[in-house]
Design goal:
Number of helices: 9
Number of domains: 1
CATH superfamily: Alpha/Beta hydrolase fold, catalytic domain
Strand order of the largest sheet: 1-2-4-3-5-6-7-8
Distance between the termini: 28 Å
Helix content: 25-40%
CATH class: Alpha Beta
Radius of gyration: 16 Å
Structural class: alpha/beta
Number of strands: 8
CATH topology: Rossmann fold
Order of helices and strands: EEEHEHEHEHHHEHEHH
Largest sheet: 8 strands, mixed
CATH architecture: 3-Layer(aba) Sandwich
Shape: globular
Length: about 240
């Protein structure tokens, strides 16, 4: 694995873990708020998918080893577009997997660019304003404690400036690439109805899968790894 740095169109340095396996295809992993490419779950996920193709796991701005401040989907599309542009120079096929707000950014970018072979969105919200984030629920605080990584927590830098945001529900019909929508039955942050609504409105080739007794975003991988890997690899490489 090599860590590379990519500069966005607005001058922010984005850090990427590049797992090269000499494939003609690559999957880009786009974490959500408060998660990084170096989180335990994303390192494990990267190693799993690097058995099938190359992997590029990224830190959005304001996270981990990337620069800038996180804007909660207002500017993060610049980050993802820059990583995709870099990948286009090396690979014939680009797959994309986004988690939570990273899934929102992935939908926004795919509504504008027609270069992604297949897309997977995990716990995607219809819009930022309707995210529940019920932190007092055990479904929220238990997984959070289980994923406690102080080094990651201290690396997060949110922007205090409020900026306008594109709502995934308003653009999902513009996404052309085949899209797999995944949601957790017990997700207290982005309740499953968000992803179900996006799936219903999408007009591309699509599939929806609800993970029973699972929580939010990367928790689907953590709590039911076998099912997550099987469904994702089948969607990307077999369907």
């Amino acid at each position: 694995m090599n860590e590379i740095k990519i500069i966005t169109s607005d001058g922010v340095k984005i850090a990427v873990n590049h797992y090269e396996n000499n494939s003609e295809s690559v999957i880009i992993l786009a974490p959500g708020w408060f998660m990084t490419k170096d989180s335990k779950s994303f390192k494990e996920m990267s190693k799993v998918f690097s058995q099938y193709c190359s992997v590029m796991a990224m830190d959005f701005r304001g996270h981990g080893k990337s620069g800038g401040f996180y804007t909660f989907t207002s500017k993060e599309e610049n980050d993802l577009k820059s990583v995709i542009e870099y990948a286009q120079k090396k690979y014939k096929k680009i797959y994309l997997m986004g988690f939570s707000l990273g899934a929102a950014v992935s939908l926004i970018v795919c509504s504008e660019l027609d270069v992604i072979e297949k897309l997977i969105v995990v716990s995607a919200p219809t819009c930022f304003e309707k995210i529940e984030n019920k932190m007092w629920k055990k479904e929220a605080w238990i997984p959070t404690l289980q994923k406690c990584e102080l080094k990651r927590w201290f690396s997060i830098r949110p922007s205090i400036k409020v900026s306008s945001k594109v709502k995934p529900i308003d653009i999902v019909e513009k996404v052309k690439c085949p899209t797999l929508f995944l949601a957790g039955e017990k997700d207290p942050t982005v309740c499953s109805w968000h992803t179900q609504t996006l799936f219903t409105k999408a007009v591309c080739k699509k599939k929806y899968e609800l993970f029973e007794n699972c929580c939010h975003a990367e928790d689907l991988f953590i709590q039911n790894r076998k099912k997550f890997i099987e469904i994702c690899t089948e969607w990307l490489f077999q369907s």
